[in-house]
Amino acid sequence: MTAERSQEYYDEIKGRFAEERDLRLSYRPEGTSQFTSELTGDLERYAADPYIEEIVGREPIDDEVEVLFIGGGFSALLTAARLREVGVESIRIVERGGDVGGTWYWNRYPGVACDVIAYDYLPLLDEMGYVPTRHYAEGWEILDHCRAIARRYDLYELAVFQTTVSSTVWHEDQQLWHLTTDRGDSMRARFVICANGTLSKPKLAKIAGMESFTGHSFHTSRWDYEYTGANLENLHDKVVGIIGTGATAVQAIPNLAENAKELFVFQRTPSSIDIKNDWETDPEWAAKLKPGWQAKRRQKAMTAPPLSAMQVDERAAMSREEKIRRQENANIDYMMRIHRRIDEIVEDQATADALKPWYMFMCKRPCFHNEYLPSFNRPNVHLVDTHGKGITEIGSKGPIFEGTEYELDLLIYATGFEVQKTGIWNQIVGETGVELNEKYRDGVRTLLGIHSHGYPNLFIMGGYQASFNFNLTDVLQSQGDHIAACIDYVRRNGHTTIDVTFDAEEWWVQEVIAHRGKTSRNAECTPGYYNFEGEFNRRQDGNYNGGFPKYTGHMASVREQMDEHFSFT
Ligand code: NDP
Hints:
Layout: H1 7-27, E1 35-36, E2 62-70, H2 74-85, E3 91-94, H3 103-106, H4 118-121, H5 125-128, H6 139-152, E4 165-171, E5 176-181, E6 186-194, E7 204-205, E8 216-219, H7 225-228, E9 239-243, H8 247-259, E10 262-267, E11 273-274, H9 283-288, H10 293-302, H11 309-317, H12 320-345, H13 349-354, E12 367-368, H14 372-375, E13 381-385, E14 393-394, E15 399-401, E16 404-405, E17 410-413, E18 427-429, H15 436-440, E19 458-460, H16 472-492, E20 498-500, H17 502-515, H18 521-524, H19 548-560, H20 562-565, E21 566-568
Parallel strand pairs: 2-3, 2-6, 4-18, 6-19, 8-17, 9-10, 9-17, 10-13, 11-12
Antiparallel strand pairs: 1-7, 4-5, 5-6, 14-15, 15-16, 20-21
This protein binds NADPH dihydro-nicotinamide-adenine-dinucleotide phosphate (NDP).
NADPH dihydro-nicotinamide-adenine-dinucleotide phosphate is lined by residues 114-115, 199, 205, 207, 243-249, 251, 266, 268-269, 365, 390-391, 414-417, 528-529.
């Protein structure tokens, strides 16, 4: 039991949160444009695929399929499985990487794992008859699962890898999408599903002089095992630096700490690190699971236990301000527990203090790890805390901070990914000749984050105006089920196209707006990708915040009244 704290105690901490946020905003008024994901020219090598032996030569493709997925990660795999179940034969995945897997194809850094419970995160466990080997799966197991899904549903048959779609144009006369790629292909498809991920494009902080660095460097999503060795054994005599301390860095750092001669961690804002309660799956428990166990588990997770009559009364009597105050105080209590844990683990007080996150829980993606904090007790690990400023200059030898140039052999960028621009990477031109990006210039417009008026037979997964859920595959699965049901509806009813009506789209835009910005919480957060690095953004240009159960409820009601929401030809 913690002692009852005075409101002054909480207000003081909130004050410190605000100071830390303002400090960061003052350093970076440019918001999201502090990063670049245009990895061309000098930066091209940061995007190159290190996991393939070579670019496999092939003739350009000129053909037609029924359903084409742009991207081969979980979005495509889940939806394709459902499409197979309703009898769709002709399915093609077009994927930039050398295999399916998406995030799990690219992110192979040492220590890569998912800290959403594996029995929830890995999709199609019932269908695949598979039980993950651990409570929290490692990256290799998830990638293997992706490959197994692709084999089980014959998705390799028409798949093309090492191929990036460059344009997707609707041809009204043929009622087909025409796609071109960087491999000279000319593909046609009845239905196109943008399944290119929510965090799929690596981004780099734009740091002055980064191209002058003479050591080796790469982004965490393009891990160069040829340089580091499969078990990082080549780093034993190397000085390594890593920029960034987000969820990726938190998983990679303990391994680097163990293997590098010296490790410099360049920190701008610390992550919150809680305990990771991990264990191997108990085979007896797994053997007892009944068919359909995962679906049941998902259903249960979505249904919150009902409030007692007393709780209902108590809430009704509470003012809105009081509810927010209580929530904030509970959040601060949690973050102070995170601080105490740092003090218990990290021996050097200055390092411990620098590792303490000063913001509300969930302003940044929370992390769970048992070896991250102890890594800072190793004599070869050095935290370079930049007090919110970040690394702004890199010399030929390494990053420069407060006049010191840190001489490195290897510099790793753990600077994250572009967020949720799925669906608008390539040039998507709809029925009126307008590019989707152009349509969105005055604000994102979709139904459920999936359909956009004027773009018939196009479906977007994991993008804006969809619900957010800590377990992303829940969102993707619900979207995949919905999309497969829509395509099935079109086929069964002898239609060729489906397009959301203007009115249905407008209804959803208003729903999104109504549920966003109800509190000032996001604006009060320290900058990060959850709040567009502190930039102002239109209320419609984000997630649907009405909650995941409500989101799936809306999907179901849309499907119950297809003619009210869509036009068909
Ligand atoms: P993030 O965007 O979360 O982190 C980028 C990091 O780079 C931040 O710490 C940022 O600091 C720092 N940074 C950026 N520019 C500079 C600079 N100039 N100098 C110093 N530091 C800088 O990317 P991640 O790849 O870590 O994670 C992306 C997402 O991927 C996660 O949020 C999560 O959703 C997912 N993920 C999930 C995992 C899991 O299941 N455990 C594991 C890995 C990733 P600042 O905070 O100040 O902006």
